[in-house]
Every structure is written in C-alpha cells, then in structure tokens.
User: What shape does this take?
Amino acid sequence: MLATALPFHSAIPLERYLQELTHLYPQCSDIRRMGSAALDLAYVAAGRFDGYWEYGIKIWDIAAGALIVQEAGGIVSDMNGGSDMGGANGIMCANPKLFKQLAQAIRGQQVNS
Assistant: This one.
C-alpha cells in the first residue's frame, strides 16, 4: 500500500506524475491520498503504508515525519537519492525491503522483484 499526493501545479508536469502512477499502480495493492504529508510519513513509519512519494512539498511539512520514518528503520530521500526533499526534488520513502523497487518504479525503470 502506497501513499501520495497530487503535485502542486508548478512542482512537476502532470504528465510525469501520471507516468509514475502508471508504473506503480499495477505493482501495489492500492494507492491512497490522505491529504497530509506528516500523516503519510507517520503511517509509513508505523507500517500502515509501505511507501510514500510527493512533489512540491515544503520542508517544514516533512522534516519531522522524515525523521520519524528514519528512526523507525525506513529510508527517506529525494527523487534522485539525495537529501534535498523540498519542492520539485520531491520526497520518497519506504521500508528497506521496498525502497529500491519504489525508486525504480518512480523513475520508470523495470522492477525486478
């Protein structure tokens, strides 16, 4: 189960986001949109969601949640694998078993299970 939010209009082109959904949706049981980055991150940390990604988010909306995910043993990065998670760089996180697959699917790469 994954969580996301629709990107703000200026964050990334909608076509790119829709391509990510196209790659991810067939590979998961469901994708949810809760409306709160902090809640989505807390749910990843608690194991309610397996992963989360979003673009156009402000760092103050995700800083505490990203730390909670890391403290729970999850992996958090920007879409390029770095730590600049604000704005168009986006944020993705997942449990360690799923993170690589999530990153590959977001980048449109073939996922080898």
The chain has a mean pLDDT of 86. The chain has four helices and five strands. Helices lie at 14-24, 37-46, 59-71, 99-106.
